[in-house]
Amino acid sequence: MTKLSVNINKIATLRNARGHNRPDVLQAARDIERFGAQGITVHPRPDERHIRYQDVRDLRHVVTTEINVEGNPTPDFLDLVREVRPEQVTLVPDAPDAITSNAGWDTVTHQQYLREVVADLKSIGCRVSIFLDPIAELVEAAATTGTDRIELYTEAYATQFLADREAAVAPYRAAAALAGKLGLGVNAGHDLDLDNLAWLHQQLPELDEVSIGHALVCDALYLGLENTVQLYLRQLKSMNS
Ligand SMILES: CC(=O)[C@@H](O)[C@H](O)COP(=O)(O)O
Ligand SMILES: NCC(=O)COP(=O)(O)O
């Protein structure tokens, strides 16, 4: 079964635009779970332009499924996850000023560093996932760090999907199969939407979880949050049920 973890960053972006508490990020998380999502993802950035560190602390008392906290393991980030102890931490090598995540880890170059971070996070009970591009040597190097999972960075898939869905998915299918052989779980995320999700899901039987935020929140403006969450869940049903 492939789980849907909804990234609520963009709900916080809207809230922050006015400085009050509308929309209420914690209530949104509760509702998203009630609508059927199996997890809540947040990616607090150093400038706290959307999810704030305090939101992550508060979510710990609200989320009953799983919290997935994404980010670059800076000292502040590591202090936060040590305090909150989310079910999953996804390591993303983004620069402080990145508009959004724009690269995966070079797990070959940063193998030793990642090994230390992974061990630290696993020692406090977090499942760890490493965000990377679908390249065999990156998957192999990730496996040596002790990580539980990888998260395949799907921006390239999403960009190519409409022109050639088979070419778009081929490297992801190979990377997921390799990860499975190496004993790693497989997550995926970035720019997934109602058009491209079902094909990725059908082609990657190893897929444990997708985290989706930007497109899902955009769709919710037109379709409503409950309906939207259920439409995304439906894309993940074909091989699950
Ligand atoms: C790792 C990843 O792909 C997501 O976390 C994405 O970067 C969302 O972050 P933003 O909401 O800041 O764009
Ligand atoms: N890990 C990916 C994520 O959380 C959401 O990415 P996006 O759907 O906002 O592009």
Automatic annotation (TrEMBL):
Keywords, sorted A to Z: Cytoplasm, Pyridoxine biosynthesis, Transferase
Site (Transition state stabilizer) location in chain: 151
Domain of life: Bacteria
Enzyme Commission numbers on file: 2.6.99.2
Gene Ontology molecular function terms on file: pyridoxine 5'-phosphate synthase activity
Entry-linked Pfam families: PdxJ (PF03740)
Pathway: Cofactor biosynthesis; pyridoxine 5'-phosphate biosynthesis; pyridoxine 5'-phosphate from D-erythrose 4-phosphate: step 5/5
List of residues binding 3-amino-2-oxopropyl phosphate: 7, 18, 191, 213-214
Coiled coil: none
Reactions this protein catalyses: 3-amino-2-oxopropyl phosphate + 1-deoxy-D-xylulose 5-phosphate = pyridoxine 5'-phosphate + phosphate + 2 H2O + H(+)
Cell compartments where the protein resides: Cytoplasm
Record-listed 1-deoxy-D-xylulose 5-phosphate binding positions: 45, 50, 100
Active-site residues from the entry: 43, 70, 190
Enzyme class: transferase
Job of this protein: Catalyzes the complicated ring closure reaction between the two acyclic compounds 1-deoxy-D-xylulose-5-phosphate (DXP) and 3-amino-2-oxopropyl phosphate (1-amino-acetone-3-phosphate or AAP) to form pyridoxine 5'-phosphate (PNP) and inorganic phosphate.
Subunit structure: Homooctamer; tetramer of dimers.
Sequence similarity: Belongs to the PNP synthase family.
UniProt-recorded name of the protein: Pyridoxine 5'-phosphate synthase
Lineage: Bacteria, Pseudomonadati, Bacteroidota, Cytophagia, Cytophagales
